[in-house]
Automatic annotation (TrEMBL):
This is Transposase. It comes from Crenothrix polyspora. Residues 11-278 form the Transposase IS701-like DDE domain. Residues 153-168 have a biased composition (Basic and acidic residues). Residues 153-180 are annotated as: Disordered. It holds the Pfam family DDE_5. SUPFAM superfamilies: Ribonuclease H-like (SSF53098). It comes from the Bacteria. InterPro entries: IS701-like_DDE_dom, RNaseH-like_sf.
Amino acid sequence: MNEIIATLEALRPIISTRDFRQLTLIIEAMLAMTGRVTMLGISRWAEKGGSYRTIQRFFNAPHDWSKMRWALIKRHFDKRTTLEEPIGVVLLTGDEVVVTKSGKQTHGLGKFFSSTQNQPVNGLCFLNLSLLDVDTRHSYPVITEQLIRDGVKETAPKATKPKGEKGKSGRPKGSKNKDRTVVELTPFQLQLQGCIRQAQGLSGRDLKLCYFVYDGALGNNNGLQLVKQTGMHLISKLRHDSELYLPYVGEPNGSKPKKYGDRVTLVRLEQETVCQETLEKNIRTRVYQIQVWHKKFPELLNVVVIVRTNMTTGSTSKVLLFSDDLNLAYDKLILYYQLRFQIEFNFRDAKQCWGLEDFMNTKEDSVSNAANLSLFMVTFSQLLMPQIKSLDSESVLDLKTVFRARKYTRRIINSLGLKSEEFLVDDQIFQAAEIGRIHKKAA
């Protein structure tokens, strides 16, 4: 309990005393409980003062979760600065997470594509942005919003779109060239841009956010322009069959200078300098970095081409990663995009341990609070783990096992008429109850 309060101290100036007390009871219960993480389940594991009605009132009230999560993250970075641990590059990453739900009354219910089930499902979709520390490779969720409005749900990357008639191919007759830096953003893209600006407003001068990392859903000009409008650089992925052209090199022909040179193909890439080459299990991987034009983008792109070749069959595949920062080195571009996957671990922990798949709330505020609480616990648990002396791993399951052992041990000691606070001098008494830990404590 002392570690929980110590970690939550950063929230005292920004939330009321009642909310702080209720949140402490809820967190203590969630750390120890088994089974589904619902309001009823939390109330069964909560200590005195955590009745079902109290839990219900907390979920029905509005809370500024983004500000609360940032307060925890900021304090963590401030401690590192105090200990003279330099803070390196911090990325802003984003993705959507789909939660399956049945029924018809849940706020924001819609049809979304679930990558885990590989099919459209009835459920809720949440947009999440996380701060990713490149040095420690830890991702901390900071902004979470539900995709609610019809326009947003229809234009979201994971939305299922009705099949319609295909329009005529080619350029419409009489159309004129347009300024590709001026784009019309979809409702989803506008909400995503608002979340980016919100993250920038929270971090302020404390963190210099330069790169926004997203999956291939932003691998288009609209995605690039929405990120550039916020003053950040985009790191994303292009389609593997994208038509890319090298800048034209040669004598100008005519009054209008030529812009596009040779098209980038596997044969043309062989003439470029290889940045990195590896051979593992008969698979040769070559990495190229080139600055190229894409006919739907208004400016040069910094593209890293990863070509994998099966030396036995001769079959090849390629991945195109890109950024608008022309000075970003190939190894950092690859690393930053790879680290984006840390946000998937955030979603996994939120679903498996903190109730993102379990909550049964239906109203707007309670649904938002349930989803935000689960992702708040992802951030909170990562900052809590280093303070638990008996924990020698970064396993969330082990963290919950330790707190469950503490709860059981205190209940048993109190039932014998002893005061647990005076009896439990150190953590050794808890170890007998820590059954179920994955990683044993080091001797």
